[in-house]
Amino acid sequence: MLTNLPRGTNDILPGETERWQWVEEQFRVACRLYGYREIRTPVFEHTELFQRTVGESTDIVQKEMYTFTDRGGKSLTLRPEGTAGAARAYLEHSFYAEPQPVKLFYLGPMFRFERPQSGRYRQFHQYGVEVFGAADPAVDAEVIALARHFFQRLGLQGLQVHLNSIGCPTCRAEYRQLLAGYYQPLLPQLCEDCRGRFDRNVLRLLDCKVDVEYARTAPKLTDHLCADCQKHLETLGGYLRELGIAYELNPQLVRGLDYYTRTVFEIIDPTLGTQGTLIGGGRYDGLVEELGGKPTPGIGFAGGLERLLLILEKDPQRLPPATRLDVFLALLGSKFVPEGLRLLGRLRQAGLSADMDFLGRSLKGQLRYASKNQARFVALLGEEELSRGVVALKDMEQGGQVEVSIERLEKTLLERSNHR
Q: Can you give the residue ranges of every domain in the chain?
């Protein structure tokens, strides 16, 4: 039916959108405080961009991308994540010629064909940051601090930072061989996903939610890091302690995308089990070079807005109250519509949210409509009021009614509602 949503999509309705806007604004404020600038990339890119950056062996490329051929015969893909597009933009618009590092953030829809479940859709929304051009672990610490600052603005407490290093291409290559040797005799006991991932990306077996016990006893990459990667991890840990950010080293933590190197991290809500990951991120020092640029270090994180809002809605006090209408004009007859329209214009120009009836409702019907739309005040305007240049101003929250000069209505409403 044309009246049904496509599976895995969701309408965000009035009453919900205000909460989304509030969360998005808290993220924008946090990013601005840390010197990050917003970037908005297209919702589709050339398919090759994701094949080269996300990785041919990943579930995203193999199973989840929405790929189509346009009328010009080009293969395009709806973006499944934000980092690849940001890296492409970094090169295409010569951000490398600007003072480094380049610090970016984004908000927007992403697309993956996967099984819909609570907080996970096929069209979903991510918030994230990317930093290009700085290899110092101090930047890793800042990115984690920014995420924590954002969650603090939302009133989230008790979150945990999980940290790991997946090394550089050199030490990771040696570790892959060691890990493959560990898992090879276990293949018959592994789940179907792990058996499929063994040849494609053996590191992903550490992230399996089924074969957890095997992952716990697997060799730890942190025991096999090269000297530079080990120093990077230790220095980052020192910076986090300086910032008062507690963290837990988690040897099973890996990222599902091929472009990650060294630092990987997650921030989780431990009370939510497997659904408690709020953000995941890490360093991707080879990504820009993979796209044809010069070697450029990078780091970032991303999180899902749907999952974050589900967590916030468990405690409604964390979220702002629903948006209220400052004033509703109740007109006692259709002949007062011209005056009502003029008055609406004045109120809105003054920064007040204002509305009136357009369906010819009775006064009782208008008051009911105003109450349903949570109007703070109702201004009644009829023959008698207009002849005396006043409105009857009804306080819908505290009760009571007073007469106010039409000329002073904006000022009175601003004062009484403490409007900013």
A: 17-168+226-318, 325-416
Contact (CB, 8 A) for 299 and 281? yes
Write out pLDDT tens, residues 39-79: 999 999 999 999 887 776 566 777 789 999 999 999 999 99
Stretches where the chain sits below pLDDT 50 are 420
pLDDT of residue 409: 92
Q: Which CATH superfamily is domain 17-168+226-318 in?
A: Bira Bifunctional Protein; Domain 2 (3.30.930.10)
User: What six digits make up the tokens of 308?
Assistant: 């974050």
157 backbone dihedrals φ, ψ, rounded to 5°: -125, 165
Q: Say how many Å lie between the first and final Cα of the chain, rounded.
A: 46
d(CA 189, CA 64): 26
Residue type, 133: G
d(Cα 403, Cα 415) in Å, to the nearest integer? 15
Fold adopted by 325-416: Rossmann fold (3.40.50)
* pTM of the entire predicted model: 0.88
